[in-house]
Hints:
Blueprint: E1 33-40, E2 45-51, E3 62-63, E4 66-73, E5 78-84, E6 89-92, E7 102-109, E8 112-116, E9 119-123, E10 127-134, E11 138-145, E12 154-166, E13 173-176, E14 179-182, E15 191-197, E16 202-205, E17 217-223, E18 232-242, H1 244-260, E19 275-277, E20 283-291, E21 293-300, E22 320-324, H2 328-334, E23 338-344, E24 355-360, H3 361-364
Parallel strand pairs: 1-20, 9-20
Antiparallel strand pairs: 1-2, 2-3, 2-6, 4-5, 4-7, 7-8, 7-9, 8-19, 10-11, 11-17, 12-15, 12-16, 12-18, 13-14, 18-21, 22-24, 23-24
Amino acid sequence: xKKLLFLITTIFLFSCEEPYTPVIDVRDNSPxxxxxxxxxxxxxxxVHLSHSVPLTSDTSAIPxxxxxxxxxxxxxxxxxxSTQSPTGEHVLPHxxxxxxxxxxxxxxxxxxxxxxxxxxxxxxxxxKDVKLVRTDLGMEVHxxxxxxxxxxxxxxxxxxxxxxxxxxxxxxFIFKNGSVFRRTDEENISHCYAQNFASDIAIATTExxxxxxxxxxxxxxxxxxxxxxxxxxxxxxxxxxxxxxSFVFWNTLKKNSESVGDLFGSMPSELQGNFTSKGNxxxxxxxxxxxxxxxxxxxxxxxxxxxxxxxxxFYKGCTSDIILIPDAPTLFGYNPQLxxxxxxxxxxxxxxxxxxxxxTKVCATCTNLGTTTTPIFWSEND
Length: 382
């Protein structure tokens, strides 16, 4: 979850109920360890590690790439892990854990050692529905869930978006070995997939409702003209039941980010969650535990009414032209920045194509914004 590499410009030292915001000394350049963890009792927990940069810095938080972990339960469990991750997202591989146990996580990095409080595990209710709701400003992603029999009335969501898109122009032909050929699937440069781990904090509570049930909660927003909905869009929703203390923590950060910018990245030197430092390095961290609910859904542009208009600023200024087929080898041979797109039939030629359309390689290439590799979970039928 790259989502937690952001900036924050206020300090939170809070009890289980109320946040406290003291004055910040902007001259303080001390780094802060940042931990966002979830102990998944269904298996394979995830810990995101980074450290902050000074308030005056323009850079985002820096991933912590190597760490050792110890996961304990009050029922006698003790697991140890050593991991490396260039992005700071560390996966702790383990099987199913007890949903009735309490857990503690210890993190050892080159910056220091950090230990969480003992935390209770919560079981989320199932996700009933995920849908798109159009507004004047764009498209909202709404989630509804079944009534939760667990005692928690506080929820958090994490959203992974994936979408299929094309470059501004599609190149169906390739120039190689002095001639123009139709591209094979392996030579595709124009059809891509992009992915985003939503950075906004999505939380809600049913504390003041009669039923412990989530209905039409907004968890993500796609602005007008975004290319995410241009062809096919998928969202994986992860729903967590959390404690009231966790809700207060995330709600405080959410309010701060809405008022000053972002979350973890450029930040002051002193913050607190449910982790404590075993040394001199300050830490801002939170860990939850439980059994999450997950649901992946797909939306196609053909099902959106009225049709979704979109643009990709990266391709602004892209143009195309045409060339007679006999002249194509010379054009492409001397101009490797150009690529053929399609065969054209512009005058009678016994049913044979007469021209190629062409454009610059950058205007027909999508890999500057995504990957041509189809995700293993991707479906065109769901």
